[in-house]
Amino acid sequence: MRIYKILPAAEWRAAEAAGAFVGSAVDLADGYIHFSTAAQASETARRHFAGKDGLVVLEVEADDLGGDLRWEPSRGGDHFPHLYRALEPRHVRAVTTAPLGADGVPQLGPLA
Question: What's the predicted TM-score (pTM) here?
Answer without folding.
Answer: 0.95
